[in-house]
Amino acid sequence: MDLNFTETQDIVRTTAREFMARYYPKSLVRELEEEPIGFREDIWKEAANLGWLGWVIPEEYGGVGGDFLELIVLLEEMGKACFMLPFFSTVICSLPILAAGTKEQKEELLPKIAQGEMIFSLAFTEPSATYEAAGIETKAVADGNDYVINGTKLFIHDAQVAHSFLCAARTETDKANPENGITLFVVDAKSPGIKITPLEAIADDKQTEVIFKDVKVSKDAMIGEINQGFPIIKRLLEQAAVAKCAEMMGGADWMVENCVAYAIERVQYGKPIGSYGIIQSYLSEMWAEVGIAKRLMYYAAWLVAQGGPCAKEVAMAKSLASEVYRSQTRMGVQIFGGIGTTREHDMGLYYRRARQAALLFGDPISMRERVAQEIGL
Amino acid sequence: MDFQLTPEQQALKNEFEKFFSEEIKNAPPNWSGNLMALFESDENWAYHRSVADKLGEKGWLSLPWPKKYGGQEHSYFEQLLFNEVRAYYRVPGVDMWGPQIVAPSILEHGSEEIKNTWLPRISRGEINWCQGWSEPNAGSDLASLATKAVENGDDYVLNGQKIWTSGAHRADHMFLMARTDPDVPKHKGITYFLTDIDKPGITIRELLFMHKKRDYNEVFFDNFRIPKKNIVGDINKGWYVTMAGINFERSMIGSVSELQGELEELVELCKGTERNGKTLAKDPLVRQKLAQLAIELEAAKNWAYYVSHLQSKGQNVPAESSAAKWFSSELTVRFANTVIEIMGLYGTLKEGSKWAMLDGRFEDMCQISLGITIAGGTTETMKNIISWMGLKLPR
């Protein structure tokens, strides 16, 4: 057992910090929040040049061949900086292509992803608002060499800039086991019949409604076997849940650092507020809870990287990170006082993101239900 | 970052597993394994003693000590594995103080004579210690202790009172602090003594816990004599000797691991207990509560491993170990109270009732656990340490 970060992980962190300091100030976060598209080509290209988009893609497909824990470290820094470009969407879609795509699909798609030429959006959730298989009602019906997709995808991130969707659709109805009959397709975002409508949400992240109306996609665009998409998605959801934890915990680090610094600098009644017991109580709990949730996240991430079963630990990590991030960002606002509640103060960026991230890829209630199943209840 | 145990660590852990899973079978019929259960009856105490002898023989009471003094020179991490496995099976046999609190102080500050006299006996598991630190007016502010020790020939003569002395009624020795110089700042006039307590000048009086069990005691000294040769470190330097005593495996893995075992039994109980026409295991609220406990336990376990990892690298970890103490002790209280809530009316029945669930262990635990958030540094003290030493907040 060695719980130290590797040298590469340390380098990734340092590089990411320098990158964010140089290219990604908080003023840009605010600009991107206000824009419907929310994209910057130059920053995207810089990220691609650093190899970030292909970090976990093997070198033979134009990637860096790094490991999942390094990606986790990178995502922590992105969370800390409130990075809004479609990195998360694109990278999580690259994982199932890597895991289940054919050689031709990998050769076609992965180098483009790694070079920053292909932005992906995951078209999974629907108005059913669940990550369970039963929630997938969008249908794909065979038509010669094509499939025709019909349905509504909801809460879809980054569709407004995506070149492609990774879309989950039902190709067969199995009432007894809804996990059967789901198939994954790569869909060109310019395909006729796709209608994208932006949604305004708490984190000003770019969520959309994506309606597929008679959208044609070639059989060659199927990732994995027909009707066998859900096991691939399950794995993807585990990876995405831990990745989301990393973003949250990175944001939590920003909060701890900045709340502590403010408590030392802010004077009331002639003393720094950080010298008062009640503020110390808040801050010590904040530091400890964030640290504890983060260690559980690393453990879950390590299990994911090993490739074995990790459903229980991922659900635990996602539930705890979400709860801690939500409750402690609320305390973070309290520590900053009135200014913390304003649009101009950075604390609100994290408070709002905590509420969004907690619900993505498994909200705490459903994650605890998963844990209950895994411990034998 | 690699969470895999090395083959050596895994082999050692397996050895611990094998021993403790067998040893629990020798427990007396009323053995709950709860904190302080060892003091509860003569049978329980005899069980504790028999395991202590076996552990002493195996060298498992001195895992991280230098070989020179009978130790095994393992790291804190191997100590963590031992503590984890032992607590999971709820087996006693490790004196609460000797191996992990007294021995590190002796190792760092004791003379060769002190080391050679006491360490072999601690490592063999012979000595039953109690702790003479707290006093009625010296709790979290321990350095304000008032028990006086006055030089007299080859001895010091003690007068004063100690309190919260767990297990003093079973113990044969005490390690204690007393004031040897009243005229200097409070931290600088304290001396650290070791003594047997089976002699005149000491009175031990029971102080029952709220559930009527005897854990604590009050201890009174009335011209109680301790030979000078039993002083650890220098005269008036006792405060710094105690500081070495915090240099032990501090991850709190024991409480976490014990609760992990309890959680597994609880899951089975919920699957077999009907309430309002369905099993407790099918009640969504019960599922959420048990899952939350499981999550907090897994988190506490990972944090414990992290603390132990840092300690094994030679780092001093006041804030991290305080967070472990805070989180794990508060979790124990939460755990016990949640279990009683889930059990419903059955939850409050004491051990011995045919109706009690899980032998009434949680009726006991929801009370005795209150001591854990106070003893060994209160929750508030832990937060102070995090704030002052970890976050560098102003005082």
Overall SS class of chain B: alpha+beta
Distance between the termini of chain B: 36 Å
First CA to last CA of chain A: what distance? 31 Å
Number of separate helices of chain A: 11
Produce the secondary structure layout.
The complex is a heterodimer of chains A (377) and B (395).
Chain A: H1 7-23, H2 26-34, H3 41-49, H4 68-81, H5 87-100, H6 103-114, E1 120-123, E2 139-143, E3 146-157, E4 164-170, E5 182-188, E6 194-199, E7 207-218, E8 222-223, H7 229-265, E9 267-268, E10 271-272, H8 277-306, H9 311-336, H10 347-357, H11 364-374
Parallel strand pairs in A: 1-4
Antiparallel strand pairs in A: 2-3, 3-7, 4-5, 5-8, 6-7, 9-10
Helix pairs in contact in A: 1-4, 4-7, 5-6, 5-7, 7-8, 7-9, 7-10, 8-9, 9-10, 9-11
Chain B: H1 7-23, H2 42-58, H3 76-89, H4 98-109, H5 112-123, E1 129-132, E2 148-152, E3 155-162, E4 173-179, E5 190-196, E6 202-206, E7 217-227, E8 231-232, H6 238-245, H7 253-272, E9 274-275, E10 278-279, H8 284-312, H9 318-343, H10 361-368, H11 379-390
Parallel strand pairs in B: 1-4
Antiparallel strand pairs in B: 2-3, 3-7, 4-5, 5-8, 6-7, 9-10
Description:
The complex is a heterodimer of chains A (377) and B (395). With 377 residues, chain A is of the alpha+beta class. Chain A contains eleven helices and ten strands. Chain A has helices at 7-23, 26-34, 41-49, 68-81, 87-100, 103-114, 229-265, 277-306, 311-336, 347-357, 364-374, and strands at 120-123, 139-143, 146-157, 164-170, 182-188, 194-199, 207-218, 222-223, 267-268, 271-272. In chain A, the strands form three sheets. Chain A has a four-stranded mixed β-sheet with strand order 1-4-5-8, with helices on one face. In chain A, strands 2-3-7-6 form a four-stranded antiparallel β-sheet, with no helix packed on it. In chain A, 52% of the residues are buried. With 395 residues, chain B is an alpha+beta fold. Chain B has three domains: 7-94, no CATH class; 129-245, Butyryl-CoA Dehydrogenase, subunit A, domain 2; 253-390, Butyryl-CoA Dehydrogenase, subunit A, domain 3 (Up-down Bundle). Helix content of chain B is 44%, strand content 13%. Chain B is built from eleven helices and ten strands. In chain B, the strands form three sheets. Chain B has a four-stranded mixed β-sheet. A four-stranded antiparallel β-sheet of chain B has the order 2-3-7-6, with no helix packed on it. In chain B, a hairpin with a 2-residue loop joins strand 9 and strand 10. The longest helix of chain B has 29 residues, at 284-312. At the A-B interface, helix 7, strand 10, helix 8, helix 9 and helix 11 of A face helix 7, helix 8, helix 9 and helix 11 of B.
